[in-house]
Each structure stands twice: as C-alpha cells, then as structure tokens.
Amino acid sequence: MARSACHSLAAALTLGSLALGAPAFAAPADTAGEAHRRTPETLVPIGGGYESLSLRSYALRVAQQARGSTVDIVVVPSSYGDAPADRAKNLQLAGQRAAQMDAECDAALKASAYGSRFAGCTATLAPLLDRHDAMNPANVAPFTNAETDGVYVLGGDQVLAMKVLANSPAEKAMSAASRRGVVVGGTSAGNAVESRTMGAGYAEDRNPEDGLERDAALLFWGDDLGSDERGLSFGTHRAILDQHFYQRGRFGRLLAYVARSAEHHGGTGKIGIGVDWATGLSIEDDTRLTQPFGYSSSSVVDLSTATAPRWVGPRNTLSVQGVRTHLVAPLRGRAMTYDMPSRTMRLDDHRLPAARPTTLPRLTASGRGTLVLGGGMNATAASAPLRAFVESATPGRPIVLVLAGYADATARTKDADAYTAALRAQGWTGEVRVIRHGLDPLDPAQIRRSAGVLAVGDDQSRMASFVADRDVRASLAAARRSGVAVMTDGAATAVGGQRYVTNPDPEVTTESPEAIAMFRRGDARLAAGLGLVRGYVLEPTLTREFRWGRLFDVGAQRRGTIGAGISERTALVLTDRDARVIGDRSVVTVDARRARWFPSANGALAGTDLFVSTYAPTDRVR
Fold it and tell me: Which residues share a beta bridge with 453?
C-alpha cells in the first residue's frame, strides 16, 4: 500500500514541548516537488542515550512516513546480551525501553501537528536477544506487518547485535521494511549498526586518547555479507557512523576510520559521520543527510580535500592535513543538508560553494633558542619533550622550575617533585630551582643566568595572575632574548598563545558533559595570553581530556585564529624556522578561517568548511 507523502517536521513541532529548552529540529529543506517523490529509505542514527528529546525527535521522523491511524514502532534489543541466564532480566529492561518509547512517542504527537492525524503510538518489543530468536520465523512478523512504521535498535554491544541479526530472517525482514519506507533508527550501538562498515570498539587496552593510532580501534568493513563482522546489510554504504562522539572524545577515532577506509577502498574513502549523545539526523536513500535534531551537532568528516593519509612512527599515528569537516545542527528557520554523492553542503537546498584548505599561519618562535610547548603529563623519564628541553639547557647553570595555577599546595609539591625527578631521569645533574608562582620571587636577571626555564601550569582557570605578572613576562622575554631554553607544560602552554581558554580543566570521564558543552558556541571563555605564539589558541591534553570542541569554538569566536591541540606526553618544538611535533601522540589544528557559521536552534556550533589537520611525531606543522 502506498504511503503518504512526507510532512514537514518543523510544522509538526511545537517548540518548548521538548526537554532542554531548545528547539530540536532544523526546518526540512522541502521543495514544491518534495511531495511527489517516493518515500525514502530512511536511517536515523542517534549518538546515545534515551532522552526525551531524541526519542520524541525520532518518533516525529517516523510520523512523517507513517501510515494508518497510529504510529507503530518495533523495538529491537539484540545488542543487550545473549546469555541464557540474563534473558529474563534483559527482556524486562528492553520492555521498559519499549514502554518509554511508547510514552515519548505519544507525548511528541500530542504536542505536534500530528496530534490530530494519529490516534497515538504503539511501541512493541521484538524478542531478538540471541541467534535462535533471529532465526525464528515467528519473530519476523513485526517487521512484515504493513502497519509497522519504525524500527528502533537499542544500545549495548553492536558486535553482539550483528552476531544475532546478520544473515537471519530478522535482518532480511528489516531490510525489506526499510525498502518500503519503515524508518530504521537506533541509539549508541543501534547507531553503529546502521553503517555497513561498522566500528567495533577499541582494541584491547586501547582508549580514546589512542584514537589517532591506526590499530587502536576495530573496524569491520562489511565487504562480505555472509559474515557477521559488519553492520546491517541495508545500512549506509557511503559513510562510517560513530556514536557518543563528543561525549567520549571519539574525533580521533573517526578520523582514523576514514583514513583507513581510503586505504581499503581507494580514493578518498568513506565519509565519517560522528553523532553525539541525544543527537541525531536522517540519512535518506544513502544520498542525503537531513533534518538534524537534538541537543548537539553531528560532525561530517571528508578526506576529499586532504593530503594522502600517512601512518607515522612506532605507534602508527595518523598524519593527514586539510580534512574538510562540517558541524551539522538544527538551524533557526533554515535547514542544513548534505549531499553524500557530491560531498557538498546545502542550505535550504541551495548548494554552498566549497572552500579549500590553505597554508596555516607561520608557527615559529621569536627570539633565540628553542621553545618547547608541552601538552601536559611530561613529568616522566620517557618524555621526549622533556628530553629535548634538557638537551637544549646550558650545563653548569640551574634549571628554574616555575609552578603556577594550583588550587592546593599538596598538588603543587607533588608536581615539583615529579618534574624534578623526571629531569634527573633525563640526565640533568645540575641544580633544579623551584619557584612557586605567587609565593616565591621571579627575577628576570636570574632567568637570564639559568640553564633553562620549565613552566608548569595546573588549571587554566587559575592562570590569570601568572599571565598578568610583569615579572613572568619580563623573565620569559629575557630568556628568549638570551637564548635560554624554555619549556611550558599543561596550562602554562595554554597561556602561551595569543589568547587562551580560561575555563576550568575538564574532568576525565567516559561520559563527559563538558566535552559536549565544548561544541556549543561561546563555551570557551577567552582572555589575552602571553603571546609566545601569535595567531593560535593552544589547548593541552587534547586527546586525554576530550578538548576537541574548543579547537572549533575558538575559530567561531575569533575569525583568523587557529585552534591547536597538543596531546599529553607530546609537544610542539618551535624555532625561528619552523615547528615540529615530538613525543608520543599528536598535534591537531582546526582552521576555521574560511568557514561559514550559522546560528543553531539548540546552541550547538553549526558550520561548514572547517579544516582539520593531524600531525604525528616528527611532522612539521604548516
């Protein structure tokens, strides 16, 4: 039976009816001919969570293509676990999610223009927890039912979900349902299975901070449909999806995914789409990204403008420059869409001219000698940045260790001891003179006679007095004029830029609300820095503390400024000629000089043509 034409999601929405106090949707880019085209095959990946905002958004997207008097959704729990001992508990938990979907769908319809069209919603649990369930023809009935309008895959373990579903009657029935217009969505692991090439989590003992390394994460290509090492057979072929994207610091992982896809498939590989918590969008006919919704934005990563990816050094760290990136969010009264075959952004269905990456502003240090900008956590015997500093220090003189930005004396003393011990382990046999900023005097004449200056900052929100201190500025200037080696680490590196972010350092958690907030416009509070480096805002501990969003936000706030993230145990080594990366991990830049920014409806950053570059150890930054 033919389905009704798509309806405007914006027309269906009554603002303020959803959580978080922000409009949830972009106005869809409908045209006069939209009503006459066929119902699209629609995927709705959601980056995680079961928030009212994302569930209601999904329900209204289903309503656009629904038929009959109710909106009918089938909930799939295959990612939950297949252990027989857990079956009853898993079915109970999944049943609670189905009931939640039912209630949120009803609430969404009542608060929208669809309230007068549909009598309500039904959300039914399909008991697909193990392989036997998926092979049982009786469990296929919900997908073949002509009244079914949506299928929603719950979160959990995407690898387990595909072991249950791959090459089963259930998967075949879901594929047929998708072809006839049933809207297939899912959250977290339910997001991951919606791309044929499927991310399968981190390798053993690997974490988000390793994401830019070639083998840190597992990737199932999906070339062999007979295998279960893939996403759903009808998932997007053009893109690789990732989930909890900002929340869990997965930008590096997705960059590595698309770089590996370029190797595997040739050319520029697949598009990467990173979807964050309580956020989603629609993929129509595997050709168009449209109707973004939710709390944040989704990132589109495209290698078509980039250099050929390289894997550098013993850790196979990604080096690629000029990766075109778009932040797609719901806009105020307008619509962002993305054409996947041509890899072009559209605004209200008008194609936007595509920018190209350009050379970064010259990144050098004025003065004499070497300037080492450490990304934090370099108080170790194995630190290559600390070794470079020691090697450039003048023997026979003291190294001056300056500590600033500490909330308590215990932490400061601990770091003083750790950096002193690390200097000794690196071979320094001379004096280490500790200066506690705000307690001990800092004499520029003393600095000129030193072997080197190592400035360590703890928390960027507590560095204002250090930046304003005339003796600090005079001492650093004296060191640079006289060729004394200078190294900064942690927050002391951040304040070395022309401007710096004054927000408190984020907590390191696997569920980081701060990492999500960093992708909201204006979240980064900027102040004038020491100006050791011009034209750049520097962010330390990039990959460990998920600071990716700050690199984008500074470009939105200060056009012409480059955001540069320096990972932990890593550094930029600047001379009057160039800047090079040393250490364990990466330096990442975000160039927003040619970006277009748009006012989003939910406060998230929304922009096109941001160019991301990753630099591996030994790379020159340019």
Answer: 400, 486
Phi/psi for 24 (5° steps) reads -95, -20
Distance CA(375)–CA(40), nearest Å, equals 47
Give the tokens for residue 149. 């309008």
Distance in angstroms (rounded) separating the CA atoms of residues 468 and 382:
33
* pTM of structure: 0.94
d(CA 310, CA 314): 13
AA identity, residue 173: A
Write out pLDDT tens, residues 484-509.
Answer: 999 999 999 999 999 999 999 998 77
Distance CA 545, CA 547 (A): 6
Ordered structural domains, the chain, with CATH: 9-351 (3.40.50.880), 371-593 (3.40.50.880)
Q: Are 480 and 440 in contact (CB under 8 A)?
A: no
Would you give the distance in Å from CA 384 to the centre of its chain? Answer: 27
Give the separation between CA 62 and CA 185, rounded to whole angstroms. 9
Q: What is the pLDDT of residues 397-415, one digit of tens each?
A: 999 999 999 999 999 999 9
Alpha helices in 500-583 (DSSP H): 513-517, 548-557
Of 289, 307, 324, 299, whose CA–CA distance to 595 is shortest?
Answer: 324
